[in-house]
Amino acid sequence: MTPATAFKGRRVAVFGLGGSGRATVKSLVAGGAEVTAFDDSSETVAKAAADGLPTGDLREADFAGFDSLVLAPGVPLTHPEPHWTVKKAKAAGVEIIGDIEIFGRERAAIAPSAPLVAITGTNGKSTTTALIAHVLREAGRDVQMGGNIGVAILDLAPPAPDRVHVVECSSYQIDLAPGLKPTVGVMLNLSEDHLERHGTMANYAAIKERLAAASDVAVIGRDDSISSAMAARLTAAGVAVVEISERDRLDLSGARALRGAHNTQNASAALATARALGVDDAATFAAFRSFPGLAHRMEEIPTSLRPAFINDSKATNADSAEKALASFDRVFWILGGKPKTGGIEALVPFFGKVTRAYLIGEASAAFAETLAKHGVAFEELGTVERATAAAARDAEASDEAEPVVLFSPACASFDQFRSFEHRGEAFRSAVKALDAARAAS
């Protein structure tokens, strides 16, 4: 944990008592702040109180008595409407911040030279964050990884000159971190997302740009027009900018977890970051080859079977599935679930890569119509288990040199599963069952 000693003696209201909110309360208390924590869920407040956290009803509180309001990232700051705590804080002239800002102030107070790598962008944040952390660990650095990727930043060890924090930052978190000043700030790409929270694409992009602009070194993707313009603007303003692209020429042979052009951009970001932190290129490329990847994101499941089984359950829309399809020459493609607007029409240019498709979930009928219209062979199997067995059977019998069973659903998971992780585990279990059956035969 990082005790927030920079807030010692300050009165702080904390709203939102999920994982990051609870970590924030503990950090502030450990640092000597006077904290009042609250949540819109009475059950959540009761559980926090039972666990010894200092709770109180912020609906009745006089916000003029607080120095800061700390919001959990998911609480609306501006759109579609500011949360009631935001309105009360603004009326009282109280600053509104998040846990990333608390960490940043603690770093400035106790170890201003401590290396901080912050990663943002619309797509690829988690993979790039994990890859950078892996490269730095393999180079012998003391690395703390967290933020939006899973471990709340204030649950990590405190900043220190010989310790690198590698932190994934969502636009929500950046919006609540006005003083964020990374050593290396990575801004991968921008496409329309989270407009219900930020109102307009311009607002969304400006929040992302804030992270890059405040960095000692800004690593920025140039493959979309908004990011490319951002790189040019910051370069003109005197920021040290390194531009990256999915078209960069990198030798990623042997890096099986980094297939596809999108992962070339992720690897380029990691290479630029490692260079900025003094890591030798040879060590970085060696680390690329040992990178295991992230679960459910183009994850290869090891088996004794002939086909390669790729778990890309995180592909919850056509854009994500496109990156997976583009990464292979021929695939036996398992897809379907709760469909998104537009279905799979955007993937028609990639249908030539599909040997056969296997449909599951609510989208089956609509996807079958699209596939049939474009001459793609398919089966409607209903469940992940049946689809995996059929795809494995056909891949095994094919004359492909390296057959690939690709589970990239292009759909949300909520028709049959709790989450994309739950769905990915179902695919993993189905593959493992086939592997065990082969071993027993």
TrEMBL record:
UniProt enzyme class: ligase
E.C. numbers: 6.3.2.9
Residue stretches spanning the membrane: none
Molecular function as annotated in GO: ATP binding; tetrahydrofolylpolyglutamate synthase activity; UDP-N-acetylmuramoylalanine-D-glutamate ligase activity
Domain Mur ligase central per the UniProt entry, residue ranges: 119-253
Reactions that this protein is recorded to catalyse: UDP-N-acetyl-alpha-D-muramoyl-L-alanine + D-glutamate + ATP = UDP-N-acetyl-alpha-D-muramoyl-L-alanyl-D-glutamate + ADP + phosphate + H(+)
Pathway it works in: Cell wall biogenesis; peptidoglycan biosynthesis
Superkingdom as given in the UniProt entry: Bacteria
Gene Ontology BP terms: cell division; cell wall organization; peptidoglycan biosynthetic process; regulation of cell shape
Assigned GO CC terms: cytoplasm
UniProt: ATP binding residues: G121, T122, N123, G124, K125, S126, T127
Subcellular location: Cytoplasm
Keyword ATP-binding part of the UniProt annotation: yes
UniProt keyword annotations, A-Z: ATP-binding, Cell cycle, Cell division, Cell shape, Cell wall biogenesis/degradation, Cytoplasm, Ligase, Nucleotide-binding, Peptidoglycan synthesis
Domain Mur ligase C-terminal per the UniProt entry, residue ranges: 296-411
Cross-referenced NCBIfam families: murD
Family affiliation: Belongs to the MurCDEF family.
Database matches in HAMAP family: MurD
Function field: Cell wall formation. Catalyzes the addition of glutamate to the nucleotide precursor UDP-N-acetylmuramoyl-L-alanine (UMA).
PANTHER family linked to this entry: UDP-N-ACETYLMURAMOYLALANINE--D-GLUTAMATE LIGASE
Name of the protein: UDP-N-acetylmuramoylalanine--D-glutamate ligase
Organism expressing this protein natively: Methylopila jiangsuensis
Classification lineage: Bacteria, Pseudomonadati, Pseudomonadota, Alphaproteobacteria, Hyphomicrobiales
Gene from which this protein is expressed: murD
